[in-house]
Design brief:
heterotetramer, A: alpha/beta, SH3 type barrels, Rossmann fold, five-stranded antiparallel β-sheet, 23 strands, globular, B: alpha+beta, Gyrase A, domain 2, 4 domains, twelve-stranded mixed β-sheet, four-stranded mixed β-sheet, 19 helices
């Protein structure tokens, strides 16, 4: 009885003696899902269901991506993520599926906007190769005089945005990442407000890669955050992406923009160095971590970003292992599990030993940002790795820590 | 005119007191607003790619929704956390109820999202799932078929609405609702009331229903052949009957008006053009116009072709059909020619309106006070509604007021306003079936009445009322606290109904607290009643607990009062006097003892003085 | 010229032609450090310095640990950490070195207090074995009728306190961890206030393992936090240890205690299951993580706690690897890098695939706590690992998420 | 009596304007209080295991410290983040200065913590390091040897103090201070002033010093053979001389008093027993006692053995030594027998005191108003101080008031109040040496005077004053903004001193802002002076910028005024009149042109009317 009907067909089935009539949705893992006329879906065990009739219904093409070129305006580049999610009938869960125009249906802003789909992935599947692609697409649009808004999943938004931040050594227009924590197939989605505010923020001409997301659980305010000082701090809240210590650039509330911090203005030209060396691993230290494990992770790597405890510590037991790894030419960068505050290897004996073992620390750089920065520095400033890691290139390290 | 038989169907929604459906919050809130937030709702394509009409209609009123976060809500209600696992007690109750109706229960639950963009759901949808179809309930007028049994989330409680800002409380959002819908097998108003009662009883007997103000709501579907009208959220049984009767009356006269109208306007051209006419009323004395104008509204008028005498004359009430609609857009000042002159509008003003609109024979006109930015949508909406009525399509969603009259709420929602709740995988019901099996069938009405009377020693009459009013669950719970069935029955059947009639409603949680305190402190009926009276007058239970007046007078206090009283008074006179003076409960035993002692003393002192 | 003088001796040296007189501090790595009479230390290159005279000074014994047994009172168990730190002349940095009595010098509270040194480590060096030792020492003191205050480094305080929390299935008295972010050798140390408040909190008789630390940057208020809902969120602030969503039990401000949340009261007896299985690793997922790395980490492990992105995701590329690891009998527990909010594997296709691969998720459990819990569950409820991980044993999983 | 030679040494502290020493905050704050926090300080064992006496003394006054967080501070100043790398500019300046004195610079810097528990350092210590020892400065009275050159952090600014609560601002905390200490080679007050000037010049000539209110502070060490007295925080050169002179007078007469005292009290028993005597003053008319009593203080008295006539008679002022001490504990009301009767205290009250204390021949007594809980510490502290004085040990830390008088501050700190700053590893100076080498030696006083006069075309006299008053750095910076050396010199040498004398101080940052705005808007001297006058009167620069009165009158405005004036007035009369009327700058050129034109017109109209 496989594939008796296809999505959208009208079906009649007998089930447990009763008759079920409706629209065929799916038939997976022994379950036939039918949408009844009253709108409810019912799930029927296929061993007890029998098709009485199937009426084929021709579905309209779903090709409504609505891509639209533009120059001298604002372009939305879609990469996937929740903001691009729709129901996946195969698993019953949400999957990326793009139709940018539906996101703009509400806003009376189509005129100044272009749209383009450059990828269609859930953001946990992003890779350094994808960042390079994103950067190249972005470069093309900047060169056309467009501000760029990248629609991206929130899970790895900080990783992607900071990677682009490093690769764009200069940028002539705004590059803003936005996304949503509630998929746009629900009326309460944050996608609409986030996109609208990103478009507003783009006119500030911030010459840094930044992120625009909700600033609270209310649909009243969005915040523009420096990519390299952002982090997703909640699995599900709308305001999950926070600025960690000094990453807040601008805010919007009821359409009114206010400047929250200093930022680099847009440059006259765009300089993109679309090179990343992906031989970097990010490692979380934990008490009792046995020696040997770091070396196994460091195999074939050029740099290791370690998330140590407190000011940047690991146990005595693996300091010597780190010394060996560093001696073998793998850069070891120390960050902190605490996320906030500076790493400082001068305070405790452990820190001094780590420093002596060749470990690099870079103030309050966030672990995820240190990870993407290491990829950029390896590929572009490999000969001065340590020195470049310690220098703030894109506001990723705070000279003054205020919180 | 109406040759079609009347068809009536019911949807009974009853709250289950199991805790919320998709999170682990309880049914009752202690604090109703520990924080607030604001949301907007946007409309997106539904599962089948088309947008629902009713949802669109709500959205058109572009609003801001403010929510009060209660202490029985969490991130799930705030729509900041996906739903958790379904509440197993609620699921089990649903299955047991479905079996009691003889319905076909599905092996799996597909939780759906029903789009609701009026703000009553923070997510913009209500989670609902079809548990069973089929089955029936036997009534004195024959069998009424059950069409569907759904388990769904209750919506947020609407607290206030002011223009584009609506305020909701999250305390109710997410409480499980069991919805039993019947086929349109009901014949008339009385039959509907009986059917509702029967269905409610079956749900109540599953043990997870407690009667309270919002615990039960009924929707009535009624069709006289002009499309289906749904009367939403009827909270009392008696209103079902009244609503049905008044709706039948409304549709009947509306159909007559349409017939007149269509004879006058064969082309059915109901163009509504709202023209500004504020200049005409510059020096008006009409309070209606002046009042609205003071809040920035402006007068517009429009011709109503062929409607003269149909707006409000005799049985005809076409005017109200328009007024009910525009009210949704905040328009309070609607005046039409059937009631003019009047409302302080002078003849010369009317003449100027007529000069402007040039009504012909049989034409009417109306004047509305509104914000200019609403004019476009208002014209369109009025025109749509009139065209629909003229087509004898009366289908829509209506509400019912306390007097039994029904009012336009919104167009009837389409069938496509649902798509799957993607955050919840298919829920297998087989383990629930096993549990339901183990618990056996639900107790029927008669055997429950018998059992209550027998087991708790209350009168058969009390037992019957408890069961009929769905108070048996409350009775059992409260009695298990205090262990005094007669007091419990009295409180449920006399004290509370009387208090609710004379002062105000009493929350079920306060009732529970009262019984607990009475048990703990050994308080008697007088104290319990004093506490409930305070609750009914709006005191918080914290205040109640601390009030001295709920505690009986101590022996010392009684003695002191007695010493001041005329010794010749009878015991009942004394009780009445003390009650009046102190307002506090009196321990009859203690009082008797004291009076006896006083008499003894009197005797003795009498003896002494002899 | 090695070891010509020892710490505390009076020395005279000629240096660059000038004469230097003072107290000998150290001679390490070619640098002689001398404390001058005016209090300044000077560091002299030993190749240009010559001793003119050395006068031996006998130093008083430093044995001032001041251990003191007690029963029916409050005992401070010292394990090391900043709160026990003093200057380490070998490296010039701070090292643990215990003298509990000096911490109490200020407080007029000696009478009700006992003190005991059970270890002397920097907290990054703590191990599961040490947790068992701590638990056993604690048990002994509880059995004597003492409330227990454990002085511990803040870096891994959450790990240690949550490990004890799981091992103590019942406890008859308070077990409170405290520490300091500023070492007590400085006047501005937070140690004094933290210990004082921990002693005050101990009288609440909380039957859970908890943490007492500063609640703000001011020396005015401390907070008692459920061990299993605590996390160090800043490298250096006094209020670094925060309660994450519902871990706040009590607060103190100017000596006034207020109750902030519900807690389990102390039990009639103490039940300790001092067993942990240390074959657990904690792994941070990052974009582009290559397959193979997880398997290498999982070698010889019984459980892997993964910190995924967002609601608990990893890339498509390593889901199949996880499936293999799980099939080989290694439990895989998913937590979130976001730290706040629930993990939920039902929402996205990635999550559903992970669930299907056998991955366990446990609501909003913190990664570090999932790590110590896994050790406890493996050793004590190994047969019901998944089920027990998903159940809240010590308040580590919130039934209701309020933030 | 005093056969020992007077020995005077100096410590000159000068702020370097390089930005802060151990973080990357600047020297100047825009906002002085963006948040606040509260700390306590606890005393712990020092490096050598003993506790410092002065530190203990501070701690005894158990206080709460409130800090205002300025916008030029970060977590380092809040003591919530360890120090960052040392400021390389400050380090380089220190090394260049040390070389200019011919001092021996160490190869490494050991940063130390100097315990300070008065709240002026959030950490409870000041970071300081010894850069160099030795060297000298040549003066007209011979060579003064330099003992040490230290680079340290400035402390927090004390804003207010009220009992146990002290408030500080973080804006100043952490600014680099270069401390130059001399050996006690200075002979007298005038020599001290000259030496201070010479040293300050050398530091200033390294280019990182800007004269401002708090930028320079001098400590004077003085010994007459009775132990070393340190006069702290002298901010003006002139006060150095006055302070030294008054301190010599104080010590000389104090030594004489001690000699009398010791002859009366051979056993040196200075037991202070403060006995409550409030009963005696129950009906007192003494305003001193009544005033203090109204704030809850109570009268205590004590015998002062052998001190009659030494407390305040002729040259003797032993009473002030006690009063200065008790003032630190908030005791304002101290009365002693040398000044009684007096202060409204009556004879019979004195008799009662005498009856209580029973003073013998040569004994004095005192009355103090204080809180009872301070009695124990007060008695102990007074007794300690008197014993120490009687032992001819006058060593202590003192302050100096504007009139040149010195006052007790606290006991002299011991030598053990320092231990290493463990958060900062040893700092190697060799790379700094290379930079210092590359920059060459500092410019000496004479060549700088020459260069300023020559290069900028200002008078030699102005140049000398600029250099002498350490204003050459400011001159160079300000002139580089505005490019008008004469205006710059005038502002620094005339405008500002005059304004600061007549109204108030002007922050250096406002001076910079004024010059920037003048440059940007092309404003002339009159405007600059108007701006500075506003600043001096306390206006914020934001207010200044927006004020119309700093902008010259436009041609139009001038015309209008002129049209109203008597045409017969002279140009200078006109200017005076306009200035008086508008208070605004006048562009002389424009005015002249207008006047000329007016005259022309007059002529013409004269012609016309002829």
């Amino acid at each position: 009885m496989k594939e008796k009907a296809s999505f959208g067909d009208k079906v009649r089935l007998s089930y447990n003696g009763a008759e079920i009539e409706g629209t065929f949705i799916s038939h997976e893992s022994g379950i036939i899902t039918v949408k009844l006329k009253n709108g409810y879906n019912v799930a029927l065990s296929d061993d007890r269901a029998e098709y009485l009739s199937v009426t084929r219904v021709k579905r309209l093409s779903e090709d409504r991506n609505g891509e639209r070129e533009i120059s001298g305006g604002v372009i939305l580049l879609a990469t996937g993520g929740t903001i691009a999610s729709r129901v996946d009938y195969a698993t019953g869960a949400v999957k990326p599926h793009y139709d940018i125009s539906s996101l703009l249906g509400e806003a009376d802003i189509r005129e100044k906007l272009g749209t383009k789909v450059i990828d269609n992935i859930l953001s946990e599947n992003v890779t350094p190769e994808k960042w390079i692609l994103m950067a190249e697409h972005t470069k093309k649009e900047l060169d056309k005089g467009n501000h760029v808004i990248i629609l991206h999943g929130t899970d790895t938004m900080t990783y992607s945005a900071s990677a682009l931040s490093f690769m764009f050594e200069k940028q002539s227009r705004s590059i803003i990442f936005t996304g949503s924590q509630r998929s746009p197939d629900r009326p309460s989605s944050d996608a609409f407000e986030n996109i609208r505010s990103a478009i507003t923020f783009s006119s500030l001409n911030v010459g840094e890669v930044s992120i625009c997301m909700h600033d609270s659980r209310s649909d009243l305010s969005e915040r523009l955050i420096r990519a390299t000082r952002s982090r997703k701090m909640h699995t599900s809240r709308r305001d999950a992406i926070r600025d960690i210590d000094g990453g807040g650039l601008a805010g919007i509330r009821n359409g009114k923009v206010s400047i929250l911090g200093e930022f680099r203005p847009a440059a006259d030209e765009t300089v993109l160095s679309a090179k990343l060396d992906n031989r970097v691993a990010l490692v979380y230290f934990y008490p009792g971590m046995e020696s040997g494990i770091l070396s196994r992770i460091a195999e074939k790597k050029k740099a290791l970003v370690v998330m140590g405890t407190g000011l940047g510590h690991v146990s005595e037991a693996i300091i010597s292992e780190i010394r060996g790894i560093a001696r073998d030419g793998v850069h070891v960068v120390m960050t902190s599990q605490c996320l906030q505050g500076n790493v400082n290897l001068n305070i405790y004996s452990t820190g001094r030993k780590l420093k002596d073992a060749g470990v690099i620390s870079a103030g309050d750089i966030l672990p995820e940002v240190a990870f993407t920065k290491a990829m950029y520095v390896l590929a572009n400033h490999g000969e001065n790795f340590g020195e470049t890691m310690m220098k703030s290139l894109r506001g990723e390290i705070s000279a003054r820590l205020l919180n | 005119m109406n040759s079609n038989p009347i068809k009536i169907g019911l949807e009974i929604h009853m709250q289950l007191d199991t805790g919320k459906l998709f999170c682990r919050c309880g049914n009752e809130a202690e604090k109703e607003s520990i924080s607030t937030f604001v949301r907007k709702l946007s409309l997106v394509s539904g599962e089948m790619g088309t947008t629902d009409r009713a949802a669109y209609y709500e959205k058109e009123r572009d609003r801001e929704f403010h929510y009060n976060v209660s202490d029985n809500s969490c991130l799930v209600e705030i729509d900041e956390d996906p739903p958790h696992e379904i509440n197993q007690d609620a699921l089990l109750t649903a299955v047991r109820v479905a079996r009691a109706f003889g319905s076909n229960v599905f092996d799996h639950l597909c939780v759906m999202r029903k789009i609701v963009v009026d703000g009553s759901n923070t997510s913009g949808f209500q989670r609902t799932s079809l548990v069973a179809t089929g089955g029936s309930v036997a009534t004195s007028s024959g069998t009424v078929r059950v069409s569907t049994i759904c388990l769904e989330e209750d919506s947020a409680r609407r607290i206030s609405e002011d223009g584009r800002k609506a305020v909701f409380g999250l305390d109710r959002l997410g409480i499980p609702l069991l919805e039993i819908a019947t086929e349109p097998d009901i014949r008339d108003a009385d039959h509907a009331v009986e059917t509702a009662r029967m269905i409610s009883f079956i749900v109540a007997s599953a043990g997870h229903f407690k009667r309270s103000a919002e615990a039960i709501r009924q929707d009535v579907n009624i069709s006289l052949g002009f499309g289906r009208v749904e009367i939403k959220g009827v909270s009392k049984l008696s209103l079902i009957g009244d609503g049905i009767r008044s709706e039948i009356g409304r549709q009947t006269s509306l159909a007559q008006a349409v017939s007149v109208l269509n004879s006058r306007n064969p082309g059915k051209a109901y163009d509504i053009k709202l023209i500004e006419c504020s200049e005409i009323f510059r020096n008006t004395k009409s309070k209606v116009i002046l009042g609205e104008a003071s809040s920035g509204k402006i007068a517009f008028c429009s011709l109503l072709k062929g409607m003269d005498g149909l707006l409000k004359k005799g049985e005809f009430r076409l005017g109200r059909e328009i007024a009910d609609l525009v009210k949704l857009f905040g328009v309070k000042g609607l005046l039409h020619s059937d009631e003019l002159p009047g409302y302080g509008i002078e003849k010369d003003e009317l003449e100027k309106i007529r000069a402007l609109l040039k009504p012909g024979e049989g034409d009417a006109f109306m004047i509305v006070m509104t914000q200019p930015d609403l004019i476009h949508v208002l014209s369109k909406e009025i025109q749509n509604r009139l065209s629909k009525i003229a087509d004898l399509d009366f289908s829509e969603t209506r509400s019912v007021s306390e007097d039994g009259a029904t009012h336009f709420l919104r167009p009837m929602p389409g069938g496509e306003r649902m798509y799957p709740e993607t955050d919840i995988p298919l829920i297998g019901l087989v383990p629930v079936f096993q549990n339901a099996e183990a618990m056996g069938p639900l107790e029927d009405m008669r055997s429950l009445v018998d059992r209550l009377a027998r087991q708790y020693g209350i009168s058969r009459q009390d037992s019957e009322v408890l069961v009929n009013e769905f108070k048996s669950g409350s009775f059992l719970e409260l009695n298990s606290i205090i262990g005094d069935p007669r007091l419990t029955a009295r409180v449920l059947l006399q004290t509370i109904p009387e208090l609710e009639r004379t002062s105000g409603a009493i929350a079920y949680k306060d009732l529970v607290s009262t019984f607990r305190l009475a048990k703990e402190k050994g308080l008697k009926r007088e104290s319990v009643e004093a506490m409930l009276a305070m609750c009914s007058h709006g005191a918080s239970f914290d205040e109640v607990k601390k009030s001295p007046i709920i505690y009986p007078l101590s022996e010392e206090e009684l003695k002191q009062i007695l010493s001041r009283l005329d010794p010749g008074m009878s015991q009942s006179q004394i009780i009445a006097r003390i009650r009046k003076e102190t307002g506090r409960p009196i321990n009859a035993q203690v009082l008797s003892r004291l009076l006896d002692r006083l008499k003894d003393q009197e005797k003795k002192s009498g003896d002494g003085s002899a």
